Amino acid sequence: MKKQSAGILLYKTEGQEVKVLIVHPGGPFWAKKDKAAWSVPKGEFVDGEESLAAAKREFREELGLDLPAGDPQPLDEAKQPSGKVVHVWALQADLDIARIQSNQFSMEWPPKSGKQQDFPEVDKAKWCSLPEAAEKLVKGQVVFLERLVELLKPQLPNLTLEKPAEPTAPAQASLF
Q: Can you say how many angstroms the Cα of residue 81 is from the centroid of all Cα atoms in its chain?
């Protein structure tokens, strides 16, 4: 059975600028990671479960808030580097990120210590510009920003997604 996740990408416009809501995963693995570590609020669902219903449920679990009113627009699905398929919808809405209260999960930490610790599923949320989101989102989710730009082109014809340049490997210094 393939792994699938579903999520909602909230966005808001400020003049000609679009901002999106992204979240940083909680727990020790992600604690010191920032670039290419953030995500659309999302979570797994199983075959037979309707993906939009799962996206709404996961929004509530990860943020502790109901999805704002509105009609989510599909941004379709994208296969992630891990093989997981992620389904995302866009919804124009504002949300006070100071009110976010994520669910907790428990895991053995430190590894092989026999001690269980609780961590939030999401430890931070942020409204950010499209270029900043492209830098912060995990690589496989940047496609949803591209699809959001296409969705919004009729209302914002000058909207583009300026993705950050791919980092280049430093040149090896010659000893000779």
A: 15
Task: Please name the amino acid found at residue 120.
Answer: P
User: Alpha-carbon distance 47 to 3, whole Å?
Assistant: 9
Q: Are 62 and 103 in contact (CB under 8 A)?
A: yes
List the structure tokens of 82.
């891990």
Q: What is the DSSP string of 26-37?
A: -STTTTT--TTT
- In this prediction, residue 28 has a pLDDT band, given cuts at 50, 70 and 90, of confident
Q: What is the pTM of this model?
A: 0.87
Strands (E) located in the chain:
4-14, 17-25, 42-45, 73-79, 85-92, 104-108, 116-120, 122-129
Kindly list the distances between the CA atom of residue 163 and the CA atoms of 10, 128, 146, in Å, as whole numbers in the listed order. 19, 13, 10
What tokens does 73 get? 């627009």
Question: Which CA distances in Å does 159 have to 85, 140, 148, 150?
Answer: 27, 21, 10, 9
